[in-house]
Write a structure and sequence with these properties.
By secondary structure, the protein is mainly alpha-helical. The chain contains four helices and no strands. The chain has helices spanning about 1-5, 25-35, 35-45, 60.
């Protein structure tokens, strides 16, 4: 893991340093830090059964281009 961490661009400046599909994105990181469960529930396709079925609209729902749904595939 240390080798993979050294290869990241931009270089991590703090932890946790979350990457999606091997890439770091400031917008995604801010959303993940503010509400990780909400981020996963809104981006995962299919939606996990553990996610609440709320109709609330938030920033992430309005900006779907940030992270591809494929980032959450197993």
């Amino acid at each position: 893991m240390a080798r993979k961490t050294k290869e990241l661009y931009p270089s991590p400046t703090y932890v946790p340093w979350v990457t999606i599909d091997g890439k770091f994105d400031k917008k995604s990181m801010a959303l993940i830090e503010s509400n990780l469960i909400n981020f996963v529930c809104l981006k995962a396709n299919p939606r996990p059964i553990e996610c609440p079925n709320s109709g609330a609209t938030d920033y992430l729902q309005q900006n779907q281009e940030t992270v591809p749904s494929s980032a959450f595939e197993a």
